[in-house]
Structures are given as structure tokens and as C-alpha cells.
Amino acid sequence: MQISMTVNGEDITREIEPRVLLVHFIRDVLRLTGTHWGCDTSNCGTCVVLMDGLPVKSCTVLAAMADGHAITTVEGLATGGTLDPVQQGFMEEHGLQCGFCTPGMMLTARALLDRNPHPDDGEIREAISGQMCRCTGYATIVRSVKWAAEHPAAQETTGEEVTA
Amino acid sequence: MTILEGHPANPAAGDADRPIGYGRLQRKEDPRFVRGKGNYVDDIVLPGMLHGAILRSPVAHARLVSIDTSKALAHPGVKAVITGQDLLGLKLAWAPTLSADVQAVLVTDKVRFQGQEVAFVVAEDRYSARDALELIEVDYDVLPAVVDARKALDPGAPVIRDEIEGRTDNHIFDWEAGDKAETDAVFASADVVVSQEMVYPRSHPAPMETCGAVADYEPIDGTLTLYETSQAPHAHRTLFAIVAGIPEHKIRIVSPDIGGGFGNKVGIYPGYILAVVGSIVTGKPVKWMEDRSENLMSTSFARDYIMQGEIAATKEGKILAVRTTVLADHGAFNATAQPTKYPAGFFHIFTGSYDLQAAHCKVTGVYTNKAPGGVAYACSFRVTEAVYLVERMVDILARKLEMDPAELRLKNLIKPEQFPYKNKTGWEYDSGDYATALRKSMEMAGYDELRREQKEKRARGELMGIGISFFTETVGAGPRKHMDIVGLGMNDGAELRVHPTGKAVVRISVQSQGQGHETTFAQIVAEEIGIPPEDIDVVHGDTDQTPFGLGTYGSRSTPVSGAAVALVARKVREKAKFIAAAMLETRPEDLEWEKGRWFVKGDPSVGKTMAEIAMGAHGTVALPEGIEGNLDAEVTYDPPNLTFPFGAYICVVDVDPGTGHVKVRRFIAVDDCGTRINPMIIEGQVHGGLTDGVGMALMQIIEFDAEGNNLGGSFMDYLIPTALEVPNWETGFTVTPSPHHPIGAKGIGESATVGSPPAIVNAVVDALAPFGIQHMDMPCTPARVWAAMQGRPRPPI
Amino acid sequence: MQIPAPFDYARATSVEDALALLDRHGPESRVVAGGHSLLPMMRLRLARPEWLIDINDLYELDFILREGDYLRVGAMTRHTTLLESAEIARLFPIITDAERVIADPIVRNRGTIGGSLCQADPAEDLSTCCVVLRAEAVVRGPGGERTLSMSEFHRGPYETAVAQNEILCEVRFPILPRSGSAYEKVERRVGDWAVVAAGAAVSLAEDGTIDDVSIGLTAAGIDHTIAEAEAVLHGKKPTEGLFIEAGRLAAAASDPIADQRGPVDYKRHLADELTRRVLRQACARALEARHTTTQEG
């Protein structure tokens, strides 16, 4: 079947088997490998992407179900050469170690901040409670999201001078 | 704080935000990860690549009667189906384990655990490979399973390893440490003896990325490139050479970005070997990635120790001796990853942090119909079990003596002047200031205030618990005279090259799974030769690009490889002195070092920076006799001893008396890992380990039913803590450098995983004190806590 | 990663269209809404429909509407919408309580009330809420629309009265005056299915006595309200002593099974403990609602 959607602002159309999971569509068909997968039971949340701005587990959405919708992956977080404050915050506050859960965590954080620009610790913890991290113990992720909240206009132009 | 990518050339000293050397520094690996540009094994796509999938046994113990692959082979997408019989022909049906046993790559005779590998399908895409698994028909003749390790040695128990000639039981080994007679004598005359049986249940490291490989065998020149989730690429290369018979110089192992390891990616699993076989058979690259159930059910588990502990003391609270007998469940194949001489790893550190008169342990390993392995799950080698045992026993003793557990510990901790301290099972603890760390943690916690609060709450019927643990780890394996893994000495190499413009590359033999080696090792070099970390590239994870070494596990990267890197940098610094002397037309002994440059003693304005020296080395400067025209060096480091990080942890829990639900309210962790290279990374490692501890203490367990069915085979049932189960960690530190380590660093990767479970369980048991409970087994789930409150503290296994 | 067996896919544009698609593709076609129950089962190949009829475009079923003495909730209403609805929180706090502990926030972005009810997992939280609130299910099929009580709707674990060629369209909740409700769940970890959970709803008479009460349990082997426990409360002023008696009767009526979440006696204990807790909370809320009502005149 043919599906069309917007991925990171770009309109794409592809021919797929109906059973293709959105995570496989993103990774294997579009070759956007920043979205990961880590379980079979919709528990781990490493596959989180934004669908029309809301975080969803892309292992539990068919690519066919995303037809006509807008998907944002980690590759779409930075605009131009400018990192999203969330990306900057994760670097500033050591919100990642192995980097595997990081894309999903950052996308959830982005969606949270879009709705609630000044979340408290509890709200951040609740927002990421459907996603597992084995490395960080979560506290630095919470700090990273807070950093992003406190620096809404943080910018990094790739490889150049930084303003923090 | 921000690190600039463009920076001034080689300044002589850094500032607090941009240390040239040790200090808080943003990680060099982060820019790619936050952009989704990491490169993990499943991200690798090679031209013509095929996909493999493994058919696994649904039963735990069964004769393989027949296997019919014809329908699977007829699937249009399928390129090959490999069975155990095929592997017998290739002499690959059995592979050596890391513990002098063998493990079936694919079943030929008998299934020995649920989830065991039965057949391997290679197909054009992963969907076809998965579909074809359903087309393979297997007939099993089910046998009774051995599930409870305590019954494994019963007369008449089914013999799991009946393929080994002459084997009539499930016994693997007996191992002892310490002096039994001396220990028994101390126990016989002690005022107070308490004992407790406790189970450290089977758990699984469960990194977010599962295990997998892409094998690319090139038939024309006979080279194998294997992209693998490996914590030890060099050791894997040697083992693949031995197992597959491919000459070692024709094998290249690449361990790219790894999504967490925690010990899970130390072993060589059948899936890796099958990907290689699949590539040889089809002539195409073959990718195999296990799914989460496969990960939890077949790759290395951890723990699974049934421990009988005893502790002897005077009535005043002087601890005299500890002894223990342990039953170790090793699953169906003895594949535990331990140094050869130590079948129970470093369990004999169970003497803990206390000055004892005697200690003895006996560990018996048995086969059961469960997955093989027995890795260090972020715990060095069985140190987690050891620390849990002694820290539970000390708490039980405190209860018996009616002493405060902190006071009892303070009374018995090894004193600073006793280091280096020889314990009763053969270790030499390198350095420590234990009481200072414990007092610091008590101060941070407001210990006395917490005890007052607890007293008030108890009076109101509320259940609040305060748990302490004090741990000593033994990490950084290890001295080659004592330690090897399958005959490979546990040493690590490092190579450092300073390019003509003063930028450097350091090549190391250990492999990051998230620890931040690209940053930490650059900082070590920076500290030694004064080049900014951003000018130092750290290369790791590719056997063609790096010197030989044993890899990252058991908190050994900084203690072993970190030492190698410091020493190789010192070699370069020393060489630079000779070149600088030639450039300055003076004698080397007239030069003095400050970070980043050699200058003339008494005349600091005359000197040469490392960049100038590097250009000189590669340029036209007339070099002194014996100095070659480069600024390179290499080192292989053989540690003289292990390192002994330690720490004091305090946990505060609240237990809902109506439901048994445990909430970790606060957790205070004071760690001492010796010299601190990057405090940000250290704190991160501690946080992660504490979360693991909450998982093990409260929820994580791989259980089996009576038939050997794995009840923890998905993240629905193998529960990993989320952000809502853990508090905002309160961390502190002391610094007691290791005297024998070149930079005094001890390693931090596993301290928190080791130290936190006993603190949490001690807190839960403390909360339940009004019920007269001395001990309860992990995980302290609501149901188990409630059962403990009803007088049933120890569920049947 | 696990992958579903092959199937065909069609996206419905309206309820009528969905019914037509179900009719056309026959018994092996299934409706998918949020997909968070069905797709994991398909990935593990425990479910293998030949056709999936995607009803995510049926925005006509995504609503929360007050109509007379009923609150109508469309079957495609997502968990997040229910959790964030002020009207739900005011009228039926039991649903808000439950939604806070259903799966996780990301799953709640996709999962729907209709999907949860039709999955009919014995450990599913909204089923208990609907039973306790005496909700009605509006089901549409080729023969038209029918309205079912929850006891008619539930046929047992994983089984409902919704036929293969029918669709659950909405759930109707009767609004009672001076009422309050509550839900509490014990779970091994956030996001896990219930070890046991309890829900209760009460409405008070003008004089503060209990006019109506219902009590339900999740994951306790009972999918109807517990009349014997309710009976001790009817017509009486709420007291701790009555809650204790009701808890005891609820535990006696429960019929849990032992599993990894806990043994039978623990689950019975939870049925007792949680029944007391939710009754206490529901009554407190009803009293508050009574005061509010009084003030509003």
C-alpha cells in the first residue's frame, strides 16, 4: 500500500507492506536511525517519536496508521544548524550516557515543554515515566529538561561559537 | 558551562569550565548522540545484507526428536536455514564458554533451557526471517526440569549435561577461600553468633539495546568483519579465531556505539556465531539482532546465589568472623565470565570493610535448566553478592545486639592506618578512610534526626525505615600473574600519537557502552601532557585500530586502561623533554615541566609547548641519539594489584502498612573512587547504579515455574525502575587515591550497583522491625513485603 | 524486534464505513483504535487478524458531552483526554484516579476508552470504573444501535458482547447528585497492570445517608459490583466501621488467582484494604459535592 506523511517537515510517499511498524519505517525505509527500539511490549519507550506533536511509541503504531500525519524524530529536533534547547540541556546536564534512550527522552521533553514551559520535577518525571533509562538514574534527565525550560532560546550553531 | 569546538591553540592552563585535565567537562560523544547520529549495531546496513532470526525452544528440558526445515526453506525470502546437525558438520555445534565448559550453539541432542537456540534462518529481510521461524517444525520429547538449585544435587535428579562422558550429576565446582579451621574456632568461642539464609535472585542486566551482530565474511581473501555489541572486542577476536578457525589476523571486530552493557555484552553468544556462519554459508553480510525476550531469556543472567551467612561477634559488638556457604546456580552451561582461578569471581571480598579475625567461604556451583551465563551485572565479579551478604549480616547482628547499625559499623571499620590491609581471604585493600565516608553520609542524611522521626512515626503505626550499607569493592582486574580470562592476561594497551600540529590520538583497548571514554581518556592524556581534551581523539572499539586488551567490565577501564593511558602520556611527555632540549639547545635535565610545555629551569620564558615540540619531532630538528622522529608511544599495563573503591550509603524508605508498597524517599551516597577525573561522569555513573539497586531490591527478578518456564521474559514482567520509582539522588564523595595506581584512580562504574541493594533492603527490614522481621529476600515487591509482615519473610524459590 | 504476521489494512472514514468494512472482510477482520493492546499481541503473534480496520479517523467518536443526566464519552476518546478533562474530574473522579495509573503518559496519548473496554483484560482499570459508575455501552452494528449495561457488555476475560461486525461507539455515565467516587490501585511498578485495584462510587441523600453505592474490583476475579458489601452501606451514614465491614465482604466476594503479582491471600487483603480506602475517599468527595451543591443552591 502507498502511504504519505510529513517527516521532520518533509513530505514523503512510500510503498509499504501494511504490517510495517512505524519504527521500522523510520529506521529501515527512511534510514533515520536516531529512533531506536528496545522491547516488544510497548514498555521501554526508546522508540518514541512525535506524531502531530504528541509523543507516541513508534513500535506500537503501524506506518499505515501514520499516513497523513506529521512525524518528528530526533533528526528533526534541531532546526538548521541550531540545536533545540532540549538537546543543549541534555549535553549541559549530562542527561545521557549510552545515548540509546536519549532521542525518545528528548522528544518527550520537547512535547512537554511545548505544553508546559515550566514543569516541576514531578511533572518531568511523570512525563518520562513511560520510558526507561538504564544509565542515568533519571535525575540528570530531569535537570536537562529543566535546563531547557530555563534556556528557551538556547542556541548552538554547529561547530561555532556558543552562547549559553 | 559550554565547551567550544573552536578554541585557542594549546593554552598552558585551563579554567574551571574548560579543564585541560581533570574536572567537569561536557562529553565529547554527546553532540552525535543528541542529534540521533550515534552508530549502533542495528544502524549498520551493508550492501546485500541478509537478516537472521533464531528459533528457540519453548521448553526447558527436552530431547530433540526431529526438526523439519523444508517449509521454511521454501519461503521465497529465505536464503538458508541452519540447524545443529549442519553445525556438527562444521565442528561449530559447540563453542567454548568463558569458564572452561562448552555451550551448544544450536541444539543437536537435547534442549537444556527455555529459549535455547534450535535453528537459524537467514532471509532477505527481517520480516521474512521472522515469518520463516513459524514454518520450522520441531518435535520435542519433554523431560523433567531441574529448576531449584537446592534440588540440583539430589540423588536421582535429572542429569542436565549427560552429553559429557561419565557425568552423573549436576555438580560443577566447589571453591573455598579463607581458613575454615581458624574461622570455626573463632565462631566456637564467640559471645554472639547470628545466621541467616538469603537469596540474591537471578536478575538480568537488560541494557536498552539488546545484543546483536552484523557479520561480513569475505570469501576471496578469507577476512571476517564482525560488528558486534561487545564489551571486549579484542578478547572476542581471539575467541572467534579459536572457535571458527579463522586466522586471527583475518578477523576484525568492530564494536560501534553500544546502547548499554552492564556485563550483558561480555560473553560470546550463539547468535554472534550464527551470524558468522550465516555469512559464510550465504556469502553475504548477515545481521542478527535479538529481540527483548531473547535478550532476557537467553543471554547472560546475573546473581542467582543462595547464601547461608553467619557472623560472630563479642557481646560488646566487635565483629570477629564471617563465614558462608553458597549454592551458585549457573544454568545449563557454565558460561560465567570470571577470571580462570576464581569460579565464584571475587566473592571472597565478603569480608567487607571490617577488621576480622577470620573468614571462610565455600561456593558450590550447579547446573540447572536455566539460561547459562552468570555475568557481572555492573558488579565487578560477584562483589555485589558478597557485599549484600556481609551488609545484611552486619544489620542482623546490630539487631541482635540492640545496637544502632551505624554505630556497629563505625566500631568495626578498618582504620586508615591499617592500609594496605590484608584481609582473611587473600586480598590486599589498597587504601581507605572508611569512617570519614560513613560519618559524611550520616551528616548529609541528618542521621540522628531521621532516627528521631522514625521513632515518632513508629509510635503512630507508620512504617519508616533507614538502611545503611558500607561497601568495599575490588575492581580493575587484574594482575596477570593471578588473573586471566580463557588464558588471556587481564592487561590493557594504549597508544598515543601527537601529530605535528600538536593534536593527538590515543588508541585504547577498552570499549565504552556509555561510560564516556572519549571524554575521560582524553582528560587523562590532557592532564599528563597539557593538550586540551578537545584536541585529543580517543579511538576504541575496533580491533584493527587499537592495541590488544581485555575490554570494559568489572569497573576495569579506568583502573587498568586509564593507567595505561596515563603511562603512555608520560612516556610522550618524557620524550618531548628530549626533543624540547634539542630545540632549545640545552640539556634535558635543565628543563622543567608545567602543564603543556617544557621550559628552562629558572627562565620560564624560554620553553616549548607540546605543539611546538610535536612539530619539532616531525620536522627537521636534529634529534638526540636514540630519539626517533615522532611524538608517539605505546604501553601495555599490568596492574600490580586491584583497586578498592568504597562508599557509605543511606537509604530512607516509607512502607505503606496496608499494601506493603515501598517508596524510596531519600538516598544518600558517599563514594570514594580515589582520584576523580570527571566529576560529572562519576556522578552519572553513581546515579545509574543506584537506580539499578532500586530495581534489584524492589522489582527486578527472573523467576521460573516448576517446568522451567521463564516468568521474566519481557519488560511486562522484568520490571525496570522508571523516573517515578527513584528519588533525587544525594551524592557526596571523599578522595583516597590508590597508592599503586599511576593517577590514584580506583574506578566507579559499579560501586552504586554493589552498594545500594543492601542499603535498600536494610531500610525495608528496618521499617518492618515492629513485625519482628530479621530478613526478607529481594525483590521487596508489595506482595512480598506484605507476606513478610504476616510472618512469611522468605518466599519459596 | 517482534513483528506481526501479514494482514491487510483499511482505514475507515466513518462509523458506517467501518461497519461496512467489517462486514466486507468478514470474521478475521478486527478494529484497531489506539492499538496498544492489539498490536503488542499481534507482534507476539498471539493475535493474527487478516484485516485491520483502523478507526483512528473517526473523530465523531472522540467527544465528552453532557446531555441531561448523562455524560456521554465517545469510544475514541483517548486516555489523556479523559485524564485532563475537568468535567470528568468533577463528575467522576474515579476515572481521573484510574487514568493517572493506566499504563504511562505516552501510551495514554494513543489508547482509547473504547479499546480498553473491548480488550476486556481482567486487570483493566476503566472496565471497573464503568461497572462502578453503572455506565452503559452504546454499540452499533449492521442491525442498528443497542445499549448495553456493563454486565451485559462483559462476557468474561477478554470477551465482550460486541460482535465481530459491531463497534462500540460510546459510553454513557449517569450523573447522580451529591456523589463521589474513587479508585486506587496497587502495582508493582508505575505503569504495570494492577495487582489488585478497587473503585467505589457513592451518592448521598439530602440527610447525608448513603443513597446509592457501588463497589468494584480489578484483577480480583470479579467483574461485577459487590452487592453484599454495598448492602451494609445502603441507607446509613458513612462511618469507618461500615467501610471496614464492606472491605471484609468485598474481600470475601473476590476470587483472585495467584501469579507473579502476588498470592491469593495478599490479593484478598488488598481487596479489603483498597475497598476501605476508596469508600473513604468516595464518601469524602460526595460530602464535598453535597456542600458544593448546597452552596450552588
UniProtKB/TrEMBL annotation, chain A:
<dbReference type="InterPro" id="IPR002888">
    <property type="entry name" value="2Fe-2S-bd"/>
</dbReference>
<keyword id="KW-0408">Iron</keyword>
<dbReference type="InterPro" id="IPR036010">
    <property type="entry name" value="2Fe-2S_ferredoxin-like_sf"/>
</dbReference>
<dbReference type="InterPro" id="IPR036884">
    <property type="entry name" value="2Fe-2S-bd_dom_sf"/>
</dbReference>
<keyword id="KW-0001">2Fe-2S</keyword>
<dbReference type="Pfam" id="PF01799">
    <property type="entry name" value="Fer2_2"/>
</dbReference>
<dbReference type="GO" id="GO:0016491">
    <property type="term" value="F:oxidoreductase activity"/>
</dbReference>
<keyword id="KW-0479">Metal-binding</keyword>
<dbReference type="Pfam" id="PF00111">
    <property type="entry name" value="Fer2"/>
</dbReference>
<dbReference type="InterPro" id="IPR012675">
    <property type="entry name" value="Beta-grasp_dom_sf"/>
</dbReference>
<keyword id="KW-0411">Iron-sulfur</keyword>
<dbReference type="InterPro" id="IPR051452">
    <property type="entry name" value="Diverse_Oxidoreductases"/>
</dbReference>
<dbReference type="GO" id="GO:0046872">
    <property type="term" value="F:metal ion binding"/>
</dbReference>
<protein>
    <submittedName>
        <fullName>(2Fe-2S)-binding protein</fullName>
    </submittedName>
</protein>
<keyword id="KW-0560">Oxidoreductase</keyword>
Automatic annotation (TrEMBL), chain B:
<keyword id="KW-0500">Molybdenum</keyword>
<dbReference type="GO" id="GO:0005506">
    <property type="term" value="F:iron ion binding"/>
</dbReference>
<dbReference type="InterPro" id="IPR012780">
    <property type="entry name" value="CO_Mo_DH_lsu"/>
</dbReference>
<keyword id="KW-0560">Oxidoreductase</keyword>
<dbReference type="InterPro" id="IPR008274">
    <property type="entry name" value="AldOxase/xan_DH_MoCoBD1"/>
</dbReference>
<dbReference type="InterPro" id="IPR037165">
    <property type="entry name" value="AldOxase/xan_DH_Mopterin-bd_sf"/>
</dbReference>
<dbReference type="InterPro" id="IPR016208">
    <property type="entry name" value="Ald_Oxase/xanthine_DH-like"/>
</dbReference>
<dbReference type="Pfam" id="PF02738">
    <property type="entry name" value="MoCoBD_1"/>
</dbReference>
<dbReference type="Pfam" id="PF01315">
    <property type="entry name" value="Ald_Xan_dh_C"/>
</dbReference>
<protein>
    <submittedName>
        <fullName>Carbon-monoxide dehydrogenase large subunit</fullName>
    </submittedName>
</protein>
<dbReference type="GO" id="GO:0005507">
    <property type="term" value="F:copper ion binding"/>
</dbReference>
<feature type="region of interest" description="Disordered">
    <location>
        <begin position="1"/>
        <end position="22"/>
    </location>
</feature>
<dbReference type="InterPro" id="IPR046867">
    <property type="entry name" value="AldOxase/xan_DH_MoCoBD2"/>
</dbReference>
<dbReference type="GO" id="GO:0043885">
    <property type="term" value="F:anaerobic carbon-monoxide dehydrogenase activity"/>
</dbReference>
<dbReference type="InterPro" id="IPR000674">
    <property type="entry name" value="Ald_Oxase/Xan_DH_a/b"/>
</dbReference>
Automatic annotation (TrEMBL), chain C:
<keyword id="KW-0285">Flavoprotein</keyword>
<keyword id="KW-0560">Oxidoreductase</keyword>
<keyword id="KW-0274">FAD</keyword>
<dbReference type="InterPro" id="IPR036683">
    <property type="entry name" value="CO_DH_flav_C_dom_sf"/>
</dbReference>
<protein>
    <submittedName>
        <fullName>Xanthine dehydrogenase family protein subunit M</fullName>
    </submittedName>
</protein>
<dbReference type="Pfam" id="PF00941">
    <property type="entry name" value="FAD_binding_5"/>
</dbReference>
<dbReference type="InterPro" id="IPR036318">
    <property type="entry name" value="FAD-bd_PCMH-like_sf"/>
</dbReference>
<dbReference type="Pfam" id="PF03450">
    <property type="entry name" value="CO_deh_flav_C"/>
</dbReference>
<dbReference type="GO" id="GO:0071949">
    <property type="term" value="F:FAD binding"/>
</dbReference>
<dbReference type="InterPro" id="IPR016167">
    <property type="entry name" value="FAD-bd_PCMH_sub1"/>
</dbReference>
<dbReference type="InterPro" id="IPR051312">
    <property type="entry name" value="Diverse_Substr_Oxidored"/>
</dbReference>
<dbReference type="InterPro" id="IPR002346">
    <property type="entry name" value="Mopterin_DH_FAD-bd"/>
</dbReference>
<dbReference type="InterPro" id="IPR016169">
    <property type="entry name" value="FAD-bd_PCMH_sub2"/>
</dbReference>
<dbReference type="InterPro" id="IPR016166">
    <property type="entry name" value="FAD-bd_PCMH"/>
</dbReference>
<dbReference type="InterPro" id="IPR005107">
    <property type="entry name" value="CO_DH_flav_C"/>
</dbReference>
